[in-house]
Amino acid sequence: MATAAVPTVLQLLQSNSLPGLVQVEIEQLILRGELASGQHVNESELASRFGTSRGPIREALRALEESRLVRSEKNRGVFVREISVAEADEIYDIREALDQLIGQRVAECATTEQLRGLKAVVAEMDDAVRVQDVKGYHALNLKFHDMLVDFAGNSRLTESYRLLTKGLLLFRLRGLQDGGGFAVSNTEHKAVIAAVAARDSSRAGRLLRQHAVESRARMHRAAAAAVAE
Amino acid sequence: MATAAVPTVLQLLQSNSLPGLVQVEIEQLILRGELASGQHVNESELASRFGTSRGPIREALRALEESRLVRSEKNRGVFVREISVAEADEIYDIREALDQLIGQRVAECATTEQLRGLKAVVAEMDDAVRVQDVKGYHALNLKFHDMLVDFAGNSRLTESYRLLTKGLLLFRLRGLQDGGGFAVSNTEHKAVIAAVAARDSSRAGRLLRQHAVESRARMHRAAAAAVAE
DNA sequence: CGATTGCAGATTGTCTACAATCTGCAATCG
DNA sequence: CGATTGCAGATTGTAGACAATCTGCAATCG
Questions:
Q1: How far is the CA of A17 from the C1' of C17 (A)?
Q2: Would the pTM count as exceeding 0.85?
Q3: Å between A136 CA and D20 C1'?
Q4: B89-141 residue pLDDT tens
Q5: How far apart are the first and last CA of chain A?
Q6: B145-198, pLDDT tens digit by residue?
Q7: In 3-state terms, chain A is what percent helix, strand and coil (to 5)?
Q8: Residue nearest D13, CA–C1′ metric
Q9: Contact status, residue B91 vs residue B99, Cβ threshold 8 Å
Q10: Contact B18, B50 (CB under 8 A)
Q11: A143: how many CB neighbours lie within 10 A of its CB?
């Protein structure tokens, strides 16, 4: 065995640029909520945190701005973006369309191996529901949809979809995790998987779109509850 | 009249950052073909061209990399991205889904004023067809679809759609402009407009998706012709 | 007392300089 | 003669420095 399946550390450091590494790092800070929505992002602080100068940080922030995770005000710096319900709705509009496409493609392309993987994740989610592990369910749910779009076999679609998902994550981080009934959510997952297993692309597409519609409704319920509290 | 309808130059320079301005400038260079597909982009050259240092240029290039107009190789610099037919196909897959959504939304949201604007552009395209002005038709076609997505009333959708469109422009710049029959293309436009005017959202969506499907087919014919030549 | 003005500190925007790396070409060696 | 090695020039990657701008607070004025 001459070459390892996993890229060497050497290769990683050589292929990945410093701004690129910083970018994913800052992205994690945002998505994990360590940098809160609306918060000002201090360049010097990040620079010293990552042990670099401000140049690479600024480059990373430009990329994140392009992906709409931060916004930038001249001479005032960059801020973690805040997503309003209205914008989340806009994203869901797109997501519904893409989810239909994803469902269709997965039903057409997915290997039995991949299908097995999807079923396994759904089973794990069932476990999470049983023990009321909201956080665990949330992570598995992300993984599930990530796998789905991946198995659709369209890399550009994967990029677009992940971009939108990140925007929604920004929204969820505002505290409202779930509009209730994640057990229902997983039931929907199972229906999708069944359609995929049956290679019924039209049905899989319809069901995955419907799942997005329901997700949006759950988000609205959560938002309403958050306001009422 | 205290304030002008068009933002002042002062306001523009104060709100738009230098990297932002440079970004759109470089984007134009790429989309107009002045920077050819696959070509290496020299930072210093751009810097002296725009009269700045390399810092802002690098920031702009990071943003363009995030929007997939350029790719970056460590220690070798950035290159204008080359789009293969396969990737163009991937983009069209997404575009079909989005176009359907756009058609639906426009039929629901567009004002009669906006509808009038769309008809005007279609009429201009008819003129372009009559005098065989391929270049003019192309520009009008871009404008038409840009207006459509704008009138769909979803800003995030507009962003996503334009991002994909830029990717396809990159492809068209490789020389293959048109797979024949842009007169047919405008016929499809008219059918879409008719459905929009009738406020038949489902039909408008179906027709605009179909238009994307036909566009893709035209692209394939053009690509095949380019290979055969 | 409220509004305005004028600092001091902090932060961003940009530039210049320098180290690390790559590229092409010529000289060298087998 | 083909392959390898070793520069010289060019280009990228990063750091550090400085100017421009913002922010908050205190002093001043009406």
A1: 21
A2: yes
A3: 48
A4: 999 999 999 999 999 999 999 999 999 999 999 999 999 989 988 889 999 99
A5: 60
A6: 999 999 999 999 999 999 999 999 988 766 555 656 778 899 999 999 999 999
A7: 70, 5, 25
A8: B75
A9: no
A10: no
A11: 14
